[in-house]
Amino acid sequence: MTAALTFLAVDTELPEPVAGGPQLVLAALAGIAVIVLLITIAKLHPFLALIFGAITVGVVAGVNIGDGLDSFADGFGSTAAGVGILIALGAMFAKLLADSGGADEIVDTIVGHASPRSLPWAMALVGAIIGLPMFFEIGLVLLMPVIYLVARRSGLSLITVGIPALAGLSAMHGLVPPHPGPLTAIDLLGADLGMTLALGVAVAIPTTIVAGPLFGKLAGRWVVLDVPDRFDADDFASGAKGSAAHTPAAGTSDPQRDAPGAANPAVSTTGTLAQRRRPSFGITLFSVLLPVALMMGKALVDIFIDDESNLLRQTFDMLGRPLMALLIAVVVGIFTLGRGAGMTRDQIVKCIESSLPPVAGIILIVAAGGGFKQVLVDTGIGTKLAEWATAANVSVILLAWVLAVLIRLATGSATVATITASSLMLGLIEGLSSGEVSLIVLAVGAGSLFFSHVNDAGFWLVKEFFGMSVGQTIKTWSLMETVLSVTGLVFVLLLGIFI
């Protein structure tokens, strides 16, 4: 499927390049190199390395240092205000899930009904379901305690278990509406929602399989990690007379307890009090899926109800916002998970308080990644790369993918890549069928996932949660994203033969 290509002017709302193309490319490469060298050679904290990397980009691009710092601060603030708050709320919910035994209940159910060979496939399915309506960062925070415990209980590599879940989350992020990315591209290009949804699912399923369980098995051999103890439950009864002798310590091995399928509701794999009851699997699943349902509901209502004065739409517009949905999940979790497990008020307060220190550094690093991204965006390098790619004489599907890839690599933002690439394709879709336009939307989505690296806040989030080095993160997460992107393009091109 091809179409005549003409040069499409860059949207006037996009930042104008502050320098020539070669200088901007050099600036981006210099900034990334500074970050990598400071972290790997100088062993500097990523938060500081990202600041110095942003300054380097501005200086090499010829931007006033003060203006560069202003851009960094804007990106840092917007990322902290958005993602940072969500990470904090997600960490609170995740700690409630762990301390109440709810995570153990999920693990017992998954491990008890799946063989070690099928566990990565189950995790890919869970990641896809959770990731459908949710931002990647929220889904990751919610899934991390489950990933930790499944890896510990099953004896499989943390990477072998975690990569399929990440693949499921990321595939939904880029390919399937009603996620915000695909919805934005659908709106900009005027694609048919139903057609794009059907084709998106058709592409996402095999893509998740290839980048998830199959690639995860290979990556698990490259990188071997110990399971972090970030969300290990606290033993609130450590001072209780006689209780410690009957409760395995957190992280210790109990063959009878740790055997796959050995669900013992009286003993928690994370070392909680033996006498504490767990919330049921149904209650736990309800608590976990509540924010998913609220955000999914908002997306569906926005699609099918055009009247903004409609009471149902107004209700979901409020309850389905990510911040509100997670806040509701935490409040509900206090009762369904905390009180449901028999935790006292003081224990619940301690649980919530103890959830924040482990993620404070993550929030700073992720926000700094957002600041670095904003400097790249404001220099106009994404705009310049888009101009170059648009002039190439290639298939419109391949061009859409290449545009999204280049902007993703330059800015680190899948959202920026999706919006910019979709905007640039507007002049090239005239005369195409509805199915072909939907395939362009999917090509843009696949390209927006390509090779997450140091200018992507998600890169640092995965790195910190999995406790990996920069090199290990590139060999696992970054390559998984690349496999996901390329595999998605392949399946989109295959569909293009028949549409």
Give descriptors for this structure.
21 helices; single chain; globular
Can you summarize this structure?
Helices cover 70% and strands 0% of the residues. The chain is mainly alpha-helical and 499 residues long.
Q: What would you note in describing this structure?
A:
This protein is mostly helical and 499 residues long. The protein has one domain (22-231, 280-335, 354-498). It contains 21 helices and no strands. It has helices at residues 21-40, 46-61, 65-99, 102-112, 119-131, 136-154, 158-175, 180-189, 193-222, 255-258, 281-304, 311-319, 322-338, 345-354, 357-379, 381-390, 396-411, 414-424, 434-447, 457-466, 470-498. The protein starts with 20 loop residues before the first helix and ends with a helix.
Order of helices and strands: HHHHHHHHHHHHHHHHHHHHH
Query: What is the residue-averaged pLDDT?
Result: 82
How much of the sequence lies in strands comes to under 5%
Largest sheet: none
Q: How far is it from the N-terminal to the C-terminal residue, by CA?
A: 9 Å
Number-wise, the strands total 0
Stretches where pLDDT is under 50 for at least 5 consecutive residues are 1-12, 235-275
Which structural class do you get from the secondary structure elements?
mainly alpha
User: What best-fitting shape do the alpha-carbon axes yield?
Assistant: globular
- Number of helices, where a helix is a run of at least 4 consecutive DSSP H or I residues: 21
Q: How many discrete domains?
A: 1
Helix content: 55-70%
Tell me the radius of gyration.
23 Å
